[in-house]
Amino acid sequence: xxxxxxxxxxxxxxxxxxxxxxxxxxxxxxxxxxxxxxxxxxxxxxxxxxxxxxxxxxxxxxxxxxxxxxxxxxxxxxxxxxxxxxxxxxxxxxxxxxxxxxxxxxxxxxxxxxxxxxxxxxxxxxxxxxxxxxxxxxxxxxxxxxxxxxxxxxxxxxxxxxxxxxxxxxxxxxxxxxxxxxxxxxxxxxxxxxxxxxxxxxxxxxxxxxxxxxxxxxxxxxxxxxxxxxxxxxxxxxxxxxxxxxxxxxxxxxxxxxxxxxxxxxxxxxxxxxxxxx
Length: 278
Prior knowledge:
Layout: E1 35-37, E2 41-42, H1 85-94, H2 100-106, H3 111-123, E3 143-144, E4 151-152, H4 161-168, H5 172-193, H6 200-212, E5 223-225, E6 231-233, H7 236-239, H8 243-250, H9 253-272
Antiparallel strand pairs: 1-2, 3-4, 5-6
Helix pairs in contact: 3-5, 3-6, 4-9, 5-9, 6-9
C-alpha cells in the first residue's frame, strides 16, 4: 500500500512541500495495548497488569502500579461469563495501574473482545487502531523539508509517548499472570471472531513476534509523495512492511526501542507462565 496505513498524511495540491505540511489527524496507534494493544493497543496483553514502571525515553511518566503478583483465577473468584467481563477487567487492571492511558481504555466497553480483536489483527500484520479509537493521538504528524528531502518531524513522535508509557508501566510477570487468569474468556472471544484455527495463545505469540520483527529505523525517517495527497516511506523496503510494523516505526526510534525491549520481556514471561486449569 503506497500510503501511511489507513490515515494518510495530506500534502499540498501543488508546488513543493512547505517546511511544515498540515496533515490530517493520525488515527493510528500502537499495542498492542498494542494489545495492541494494545499497541497498546495494541497486543491485548499490554493492558492486563502493571508493576514497577520503567522509564520510557521522551515519554510522559506513568503512575507506578502496585506490587505483587496477580492471583490466578483458581485462587480468586471464578471468571464471569464472557459478556460480563468488563467489570472484572476494570477491577483487575484498575487495581494494578492508574496509568491515565489505561484508564481511558478501561472506560470503554467489551474490553475482552477488544483484546481478542487486537491480538487477531496484529497477528495478521494489521493495526488494531480502528477498534481502539480512544487511544489515538490527539496531535497531528508534521512533515518537514523540501520535496527531495521530506522527513517526519521528530517532535511528532511525542504523540505516542503516552502509549509507550502505558506499556512501560506494565511488569512482564504481572502481564503473564493476568493473561493466564483471563485466558479462558479471551479464548472464547477469539474463537468467536472466526478468523483462525489457532488458539488465542498461539495468536498472541504470533502477534508479539510480528511486532518484534519490526526493523530498527533511525532518524531521519524520510517520506516521498504517495498516491493522491499522501506520503509514503521513501525506503521501499519500509513501505512494503505490514501496517502494524510501519505504525511502530512511525512512533519514532526511541519509542520503538523501548517497546521492543518490553515486548521481549512480556513474551518470555508469558511463555514461562503455565496455563491455568479450567
